[in-house]
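User: I'm new to structure prediction. If I give you an amino acid sequence, what do you actually give back? Let's try with this one:
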Amino acid sequence: MPGRFCVSLSFAKDNPDKATVAFVVANAAVASGQEVVVFLTIEGVRLSQVGYADDVHEEGFAPLKDLMAGFAAAGGSIFVCSPCFKKRKLDETRLVAGAKIVGGAKLVEFMAPGCASISF
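Assistant: Good question. You get back a string of structure tokens that encode the predicted 3D arrangement of the chain. For your 120 residues, that looks like this:
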């Protein structure tokens, strides 16, 4: 039975291994029929910007930009922490596919009915 799954990611180029593995797990979850959200917070919000992940490629994994694009194409959602995004003065017009800037209430709404989660 499909359920909900949340991957919380607070890293970007400051820990490309964690950023990559988070999207590997998110892709596995969406492929298994789960309704999946990747919640980008702290430095992870930088991944919401078109082009930012283009040069991230951890050995043994697909390039991060491909993992992110595949996740969005499969129906995954990317929630971007609004205060973290604003603090870093990022560009709302440069969001990657599937990304949406949200406040904490939107994440709570998604998770409240019951949601498995993992954090990176």
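You can read the tokens as a compact description of the fold. Here is one thing that stands out. Helices lie at 16-31, 64-73, 82-87, 104-111.
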